[in-house]
Design goal:
This protein is mainly α and about 130 residues long. It has 5 helices and 3 strands; from the N terminus they run αβααββαα. It has a domain of about 90 residues: Arc Repressor Mutant, subunit A. The chain has a 3-stranded antiparallel beta sheet. Helix 2 crosses helix 3. The longest helix has 30 residues.
């Protein structure tokens, strides 16, 4: 995806929003498997590009939902042209085990993130 309008990580973030149309930042973070603060970094970057907008959450007036703008949908479509052929090939190779592989990757990502958090906490304690 090196010539894509979005990086692979950005494409994943845009895809989460694209799939559900509108999402709270908390649900966006959960879907991405990211801490809320990291997800909000993505939100700020997308807002700065004009690729998402905030809309009032009809269920909770204190919060907001994010949705792709037309520019965001265009960037997502452009990135999809680079991603789709690789994804199609990967799906063909993984076959019927796709859900299991995806679940295992989420577990691995969460474990790696927890390990990094623990190392950072340990380093902070040692320095303090």
């Amino acid at each position: 995806m090196q010539d894509s309008p979005l990086s692979s990580e950005e494409y994943a973030a845009y895809s989460v929003i694209f799939e559900v149309d509108r999402v709270t930042p908390t649900d966006f973070a959960r879907s991405m498997g990211l801490p809320l603060t990291t997800a909000l970094d993505h939100v700020r970057a997308m807002l700065k590009r004009g690729h998402i907008r905030k809309v009032r959450n009809p269920r909770d007036q204190r919060s907001y939902l994010i949705e792709l703008t037309e520019a965001g949908r265009k960037a997502h479509r452009g990135a999809n042209a680079y991603f789709a052929p690789a994804d199609d090939r990967l799906i063909a190779l993984i076959g019927s085990q796709r859900k299991e592989v995806s679940a295992a990757l989420v577990v691995l990502m969460n474990a790696a993130e927890k390990a990094l958090d623990e190392l950072e906490a340990s380093d902070t304690e040692a320095a303090g």
